């Protein structure tokens, strides 16, 4: 009897062992299937996110191109880009004959076409009434700047006519070219003085607001932020006009030992880059 019981027990154990093995194998299959499903899901999510990213990057690229087109459509922007090329070539050539000097001369002549009848802008500003609250010395300086710049641009057209052969008197054209550069020097000197005076006025009004408001309130105050932005813009304009004064001195050869063609080219290139930056479209305000 005992032998029979042992045989039956062994048979039951032998039957259970394959079932356990089958259960383990099936659980492994389920786990593997679950992992495969997770991998497929992850791949789908990755592909969708990649498509969305590519679409967003494409839209941003289109927006950037639209801004570039808007920028390049401005005649003033194209003129300043050509100016950067002109003075960059002057820096490279250092007044010596060669390809860089040829680029400098040809670009200078091409730029004069962009400025045809541009003197009308400053002529209009000259006869326009000044802003209310502007002190009389600043008004006079502003009108002087407009008159000098308008004269420079007008004479520059005669210089262009002389260099293209339309105006035959070359000596007179060169003489008018020097007068034009003196007008350019004078207009930038006026601009520098105006910017210094306006920065002082802005500084006083900002200090009053700083006394009235706390530091945290200043960051949120629109009037203070506008004044701060104007202050930064005027500082940049002051730097540009100061650079252009050195450029005018170099072009007139008033200090040939110190302000060499290379120095003139470097300062002109820097002021051209600032001018290009100033013409960039204003960033959209976040609502």
From TrEMBL:
Keywords: Coiled coil, Membrane, Peroxisome, Peroxisome biogenesis, Transmembrane, Transmembrane helix. Residues 7-23 have a biased composition (Basic and acidic residues). Residues 196-226 form a coiled coil. It is a multi-pass membrane protein. GO terms for biological process: peroxisome fission; regulation of peroxisome size. The keyword Transmembrane applies. It is found in: Peroxisome membrane. GO terms for molecular function: identical protein binding. Its main location: membrane. Residues 1-27 are annotated as: Disordered. Pfam families: PEX11. GO terms for cellular component: peroxisomal membrane. Belongs to the peroxin-11 family. Involved in peroxisomal proliferation. This is Uncharacterized protein. It comes from Oryza sativa subsp. indica.
């Amino acid at each position: 009897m005992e032998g029979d019981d042992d045989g039956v027990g062994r048979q039951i154990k032998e039957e259970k062992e394959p079932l356990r093995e089958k259960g383990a194998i099936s659980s492994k299959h389920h786990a593997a299937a679950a992992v495969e499903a997770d991998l497929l899901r992850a791949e789908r999510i990755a592909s969708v996110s990649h498509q969305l990213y590519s679409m967003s990057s494409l839209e941003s690229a289109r927006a950037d191109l639209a801004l570039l087109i808007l920028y390049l459509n401005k005649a003033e922007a194209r003129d300043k880009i050509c100016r950067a090329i002109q003075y960059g070539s002057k820096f490279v050539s250092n007044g010596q004959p060669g390809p860089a000097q040829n680029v400098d001369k040809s670009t200078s002549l091409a730029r004069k076409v962009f400025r045809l009848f541009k003197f009308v802008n400053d002529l209009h500003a000259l006869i326009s009434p000044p802003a209310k609250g502007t002190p009389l010395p600043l008004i006079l300086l502003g009108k002087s700047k407009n008159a000098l710049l308008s004269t420079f641009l007008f004479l520059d057209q005669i210089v262009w006519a002389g260099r293209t052969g339309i105006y035959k008197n070359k000596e007179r054209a060169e003489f008018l070219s020097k007068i034009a550069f003196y007008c350019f020097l004078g207009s930038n000197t006026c601009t520098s003085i105006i910017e210094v005076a306006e920065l002082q006025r802005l500084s006083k009004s900002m200090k009053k607001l700083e006394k009235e408001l706390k530091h945290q309130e200043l960051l949120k105050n629109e009037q203070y932020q506008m004044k701060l932005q104007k202050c930064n813009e005027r500082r940049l304009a002051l730097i540009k006009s100061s650079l252009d004064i050195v450029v005018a001195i170099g072009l007139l050869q008033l200090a040939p030992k110190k302000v060499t063609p290379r120095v003139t080219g470097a300062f002109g290139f820097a002021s051209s880059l600032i001018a290009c930056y100033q013409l960039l479209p204003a960033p959209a305000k976040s609502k």
